Structures are given as C-alpha cells and as structure tokens.
C-alpha cells in the first residue's frame, strides 16, 4: 500500500511537470528517498514462491518510480516558470485609411 501511495505521488509530479509547472526539487528528492526506504524494506523481507515474485514486482515498480523521478528532476530544471500578470498589453489599432485611398 505504501508503494501505491508513493507511485500516485510520482504520477502527480509527472503530470505537473508535463503541464509546465515547476515542482520544488526538494519534493522530488524527498519522494526518491521515501521510495529508496521502501526498496530497503522490500529487500529485508524473506519470501518464498508467489510472495517472492510479488516482492520482485514491487521492487521493479519502486525502481521504475525512482528512474521516472530522476528524469523528471532533469526536465523540471528546464521548466521556465510561467509569469501571470493582470496588466494587459494594449496595441494601437491600425490606421483607418480606406483601402482605395492608396490608389490615387
């Protein structure tokens, strides 16, 4: 269940970065550390049979999440923050000279 929660957080960060939102690097690093702790817990569990296969699947899942976060950390650094202002730019309207006046 813990890996599921962390994987959901990875998905949320992935979605935010793909939408152009800059995620604090500390948030990504913390999530990587939490995933690594889960990997250590998985390694310390002794299993046999189907439980061993399940443990291996969870281990691969944790590894994939960490790899995803590493890639996101790089692309997140390239995201330029979007600046939103409430001051609108105005443009001067084009001259109101009639088209046929150019053919005199």
From TrEMBL:
Superkingdom in the source lineage: Eukaryota
Alphabetized InterPro entries for the sequence: BAG_chaperone_regulator, BAG_dom_sf, BAG_domain
Keywords: Chaperone
GO CC aspect terms: cytoplasm
One protein family per Pfam: BAG
Keyword Ligase assigned: no
Molecular function (Gene Ontology), one example: protein-folding chaperone binding
All copies of domain BAG, residue ranges: 2-72
Gene Ontology BP terms: protein stabilization
PANTHER family: BCL2-ASSOCIATED ATHANOGENE, OS04G0619900 PROTEIN
Name under which the protein is recorded: BAG domain-containing protein
Native source organism of the sequence: Liquidambar formosana (Formosan gum)
């Amino acid at each position: 269940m813990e890996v599921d929660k962390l994987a959901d957080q990875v998905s949320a960060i992935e979605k935010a970065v793909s939408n152009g939102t800059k995620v604090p690097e500390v948030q990504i690093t913390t999530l990587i550390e939490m995933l690594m702790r889960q990997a250590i817990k998985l390694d310390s569990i002794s299993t046999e049979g189907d439980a061993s296969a399940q443990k291996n699947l969870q281990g691969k899942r944790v590894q994939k999440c960490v790899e995803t976060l590493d890639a996101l950390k790089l692309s997140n650094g390239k995201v330029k923050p979007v600046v939103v202002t409430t001051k609108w730019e105005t443009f001067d309207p084009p001259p109101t000279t009639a088209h046929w006046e150019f053919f005199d």
